[in-house]
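Milestone M4 deliverable, item 7.
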Amino acid sequence: MAQIETELQLLKTEAVNMWSLVNSQLSKARQAFVTFDKDLAREVVLKEKRVNGSELKIDRDCENIFALFCPVAIDLRFLLAVLKINSNLERIGDIAEGIAKYIIDTESPFSEELLKVSRILPMYEESVNMLADTQDAFEKEDTILARSVFKKDDFLDNVNRSSHKVLEEYIRNHPEETSQALWILSTIRKLERVGDQAKNIAEEIIFYLEAKVLKHKGKFA
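Output delivered:
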């Protein structure tokens, strides 16, 4: 195996490990949210330093491969994709940390009715699934699975679009829960951004494998 192939394989392993870490962060923040587990939320906040450290290492390794091997064709696309995927994963890690901090700061669990009308729990589950699907697509080099992420994002967009009106009505009927409803609205916005990051990652996987640029084009091109 040529040296560049060895380096690229090591880089892919690092990227997968970063993916697993960020997925764990997002999933643990969800569990802390559902169970109102402040200790678990604090764990997510503490581990954010590992996410940042992984991002920096992957960036450095990509720069070293560029400098030493001058990759071309699919190797070049792989490196460019990993750089952008790495950035998107770090942003999702930031979102998980932000959700965890909300849980630490809030005073009481959310009401069952508020969780139900906001549809935040199925939205959160779908966002975790989307991230997991992008990891599977990357590891298996499966562009069909990568493209499936675009359709799943429609649900997140629908919840986000309707959330303002739904929660406005909820606050009108439950003024004592205004702060919780606003917290839920902010979290819905964060999860919608997770969906956007997952779509960006899926686009990079397709670019790497098929040499197709989907940004600003139809996602099913």
